[in-house]
Amino acid sequence: MAQEHTVKSYDEELNQLRSMISRMGGLAEAQLTGAIEALTERNAEKAQRIIAADRSLDILEQEIESQAIQMIALRSPMADDLREIVAAIKISSTLERIADYAKNVAKRSIVLNQSEHVKPAVLIPQMVELTKVMLKDALDAYIDRDAQKTIMVWESDKGVDELYNSLFRELLTYMMENPRLITPCTHILFIAKNIERIGDHVTNLAEIVYYQVKGETLDMNRPKSDDTSFAVVPPPANT
Amino acid sequence: MAQEHTVKSYDEELNQLRSMISRMGGLAEAQLTGAIEALTERNAEKAQRIIAADRSLDILEQEIESQAIQMIALRSPMADDLREIVAAIKISSTLERIADYAKNVAKRSIVLNQSEHVKPAVLIPQMVELTKVMLKDALDAYIDRDAQKTIMVWESDKGVDELYNSLFRELLTYMMENPRLITPCTHILFIAKNIERIGDHVTNLAEIVYYQVKGETLDMNRPKSDDTSFAVVPPPANT
């Protein structure tokens, strides 16, 4: 039988840190999936479960941070090791924020259940699918230390932003055509913005993993295509 | 004349870290002030300056983080000192996010300049005033290590949330009454949400400073009064 160790080896600590990150990544993925299911199934009970489960990611973030700080203070790691441990702190903080946005989606899905069905909501699952693939790839890149894959993730965010831009304009047009849809469309707008922000944070994740693996920053211009801050949507001709 | 020291003392390093935080706090305050001035003065040039200046906060955050990690690795600080250095990392990350929201306000102010004037926009400067007082008090609490003041800040966030709730309902009503206002009102809605999020982050700041000073968490239920995720605004009778 394996012996009990009261003092873990440095490698054991590092492996433990990695598996905590992977677990947290899996939980964040599940939160995003659950939130969008709650939305499309109009399932308030599932939304409540997602909201409640967010706490476990907050706790995991704290645990990862504590362990990382302790390792830095007690082991004085250098170069690659220090970079990996600092990356763990940043990754856990980013995953916590991703889960936070998923929680917000779940919250808003509850009020949407009570409103009229709005057609453009079909673009939302598309945005989520793309975001989920990005998140999965970023987590795979972390496990495999695959810098090439982080670049792929980084470039995919453009697609999420483009879907968001379409949705933004479409929703505003719906609101103009039918004032009864203003409340549900506003909530869908905020849901879409939450998912667009998740895409941004997965892009951050890709940058953190790239830096961890390569020791240099992903030195290109960030693909930033959410231009809705500057969008003016003209009212339809009949208003 | 003072002699050159190639190796700084630990206290010098700590003081340097503190003054970097204070400087970053001042810059974040200035960004928020500038963003709201750009909005109320309909001054696109000022908005562009705010957007450009955000970069300096990103750089400062990186510098603070590098210095803090280096201090943890090389000095292996314990207890109070470790808590202060970890707090510096978190504070700089929070200030960076606050400045990011200010930048978003500046971005949206540019498109609002091109739209019709919307009446409820007067509530926005009120929200900003309250948020700025909170930010100033949180930074004072950091400098003075004043736990009492952090609790005060923490409790003030309720006021920001209440203003946001009013604004949310008011804006939706305006949109229902006049479809021509849907585009500007949507941008104001996102601006208001950005400021509401700044309030949340200043509340985080208060929690970080409290923990740094007291060594225990601000163990109350967080005052969370943005209930617009659950808001259903009925259309006016004439639609």
TrEMBL record, chains A, B:
Coarse class of the protein's main subcellular location: cytoplasm
Matching InterPro entries, A to Z? PhoU (IPR028366), PhoU-like_sf (IPR038078), PhoU_dom (IPR026022)
Record-linked Pfam families: PhoU
One GO BP annotation of this record: negative regulation of phosphate metabolic process
Q: Which SUPFAM superfamilies match?
A: PhoU-like (SSF109755)
| Compartments where found | Cytoplasm
The UniProt entry's GO CC annotations, sorted and at most eight, read: cytoplasm
Keywords tagged on the record = Cytoplasm, Phosphate transport, Transport
PhoU domain: which residues?
Answer: 21-108, 124-209
Q: Does the keyword Cytoplasm apply?
A: yes
In terms of superkingdom, the source organism counts as Bacteria
- So what does this one do? Plays a role in the regulation of phosphate uptake.
PANTHER family reported for this sequence? PHOSPHATE-SPECIFIC TRANSPORT SYSTEM ACCESSORY PROTEIN PHOU
Recorded family membership: Belongs to the PhoU family.
Could you describe the subunit structure of this protein? Homodimer.
* Record's protein name: Phosphate-specific transport system accessory protein PhoU
Q: Which organism is it from?
A: Govanella unica
Lineage, uppermost ranks: Bacteria, Pseudomonadati, Pseudomonadota, Alphaproteobacteria, Emcibacterales
